[in-house]
Amino acid sequence: MKPKRYRTIESFILKILITALVPAFVIIVGSGIHLIQLTIQESNTHVRSQVEQFADRQNQYNKQLFSLLTTLRANVLLLYNNPEQLQQLYMNIIAEYPELANITLADSKGSVIVSSKLPRGFSVADRKYIQDALTKPGFVVGNYMKNYATGEDSIAFAESFDTNDEKRVVQAIIFIVNNYSKIMQVEQLHTGDFFGITDRDGIRLFTFPEMEIFPTGKPVPPQVWKIIKNALTTGTLIYTYPDGVKRLIAYKPLFLPSSETPYLYVFYGRSYNEFLKPVITQIILELTIFIVFLIVTVIIAVSLTRRYIAHPIYNIVKAINSVEQGDYTVRFTFNNTNTDIGRIAHALDAMTSAIAEHNKALEENQKKLEKLIAEKDILLREVHHRIKNNLQIILSLMDIELDKKSNIADFVDAIRARIISLVNVYEMVYVSGDIKKIDFKTYIESLVTFICGDLYGFPERQVMLDLDEVLITVDRALLLGLVVQELIINAIKYGVRNLEDKISISLKEKNGKYALSIQDPGIGFRLSADAMQKGAGLILVESLTKQLNAEIFWNYEHGTECRIEFS
Fold this sequence. Notes:
about 575 residues; alpha+beta; 5-stranded antiparallel beta sheet; 12 helices
């Protein structure tokens, strides 16, 4: 049985190893999934691109046939009364174009007038392309059919027109569908890919390469036709055919200029197995390499752990136990005491814990005592300084109000409002825990709420705030708060005349420079005699501004604006 000391350390090392390798496994699996998704996306793009190319080739070939029909129409008009010469012309064209099975000219009743292969008078009235040509303008394309003359799988391109004697005739070119491979240049396709064309009813005209599951003249699967029959543009679908192969298929309906319904459907398909096989093979290979690497790594890790960690630690524990009262400077700590390394830590700490803890406690207590004494001294001086400054401010405010010779009620209200402004600062200091600085934005917001709500009952919505978040010293906040208070009160009393008037307060900071602005629509001290009589507030504002070493600017262009700039 393996000694417990070995099992413990080996288990620990294996946990670390597995933990370290799990991300690699996740990365491999995640990369594989991403690669599969990317491959599917690329294949989707490929089949769409291919079906667009084949659609373009079909349209180009249609133009050739339509051009040929146009040329032949002119010859019909010239040679209508000379059927032998016209038939010879048709036969010459058939010889020149081997993909054409027949060229036929029929009257309005579907009776053959001239044909390269059908006898005169032969009825083709049952052919849908004859009926479509007589009822629809321009060129028409027929459905899949067996050619009367050759018995081959064919499709017709036709048009109707009037002869010189105003007889209605239909001229048709019969195309042999097994020639699509040359026209569409589909001789070289990726393994597992296929190209196909159906008529407007979903009947297969051509498939390359030829497969039993894609018989010519037979309809596409109903599940596929249900999706594509109403399609107006290129699309994709996934379908598993009777051969068991799952395929990604792109399709595109083709339209004639004169028709709103498709006359042909072009398909391009790709086997899922073919385009995913290399990717899956790669993923399996990477996972196999990873598992082999993991096994080899585990074997090596266990072997090295036994040789270089487990056994030496066990011996060190025994040796240290013999010198437990020796070197008190030795230190070794480990969180988990249930392991071999933890037992080493326990043995070393047992020898030195008494002295170490005692010395540590003395040092920490000494540092705490020195820190408390220093903080107490600083706080005491700070409190004395603050009390002195605040009392001096209150005395100055009282002197200003006494100089105004105000009645006792106004005097008390003015002093009360300003003292509350000072109290708000210290409330913020108490909440924040910072005796040096406060958030001036929050302070101004609370000051506005107090003045508008508690002091004057002024609608707070008429005060517009645009304040940057700025930290300033408590002393400066006290002075600026009094300035803002005086200016807001003055704006409420003398600047706002109706509910549409607004008071704007802004505080902006840029590169250590601050700009405080209070604006109202009133005429200001410059024009208001009433305001000049009550100019104690202005005196206070200018006095406080000087204490701040700030600059004050007045602007009366649009109401009254007081702008204070400081750093």
